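Our consortium's second objective concerns turning raw sequence data into structural hypotheses that experimental partners can test. To show how far this objective has progressed, the report includes one record in full. It was chosen at random from the queue rather than selected for favorable results. The single chain below, 262 residues long, was entered without modification.
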Amino acid sequence: MKVTVIGSGNLGKSIIAGLASSSLFDPKNILVADKSNENLQFIKESSGVSVTPDNNIAVKDAKWIILCVQPRVLKLVLDEIKDQLNPDQILISTVTGVSIEEINKTVPQNKIIRAMPNTAAIKQQSMSFITSLDNEHEDVSFVEKMFGTIGKTMIIEEHLMQAATVLGASSTAFFLRFLRALTQGGVQMGFHPHEAQEISAQVAIGAAALIEDGTHAEVEVDNVTTPRGCTIEGLNAMEHNGLSSAVIKGVMAAYQRINNIN
């Protein structure tokens, strides 16, 4: 099988690197299309895949076509390639906020699967969401394997993609802002900024690992807190200042915003 990736920005590069290093595809069967010769040269040298600046050439023999472009250029790309597509080809869209129905208006004969990774894909630590009109189909399972090369995956219903964008992508920024606040607290206590950030980042990684097997977060919170200890004192001070409420309000504000836009 051959796969084409149209677009080689940060997300495209991450997906290409994941696929090229996996057992799903031989690098020689991965073709990348982009208008940037600089990007194509970098990808060819780093991943050993084939490259072309021509989208029509790129889609010609591909079973899978991954669209990694900005929303504003998606329609232009679809209009460019639609006459070259055959009904057996499957389009995988990573474009935020564009539904399967909208894409099928331009390419009605092709099956569309949506996939939404996050920026941690560059570290192969993405939380990616997969959806189609038939989530039970084997094609969806294979796409899940494809995106499993850059992190964890979850198959969801399409109506949850907006919520997934907030919880699975925007939350990266939410966590980093909290990590930044921890770092600032560490500096105030006496650590150098780079030390405080290293400590905070490792604590975040460790905390996530503690609940990776499904343990409830509050169980691990209880394991850290002791009667009249410093941890419960700090937690209660944060809650008195609205920590949980602020996070929930922030998540819901982002969710309302993305629904208003789309």
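The partners drew two points from this record. The radius of gyration is 21 Å. The chain has eleven helices and eight strands. Both points have been shared with the crystallography group to help prioritize constructs.
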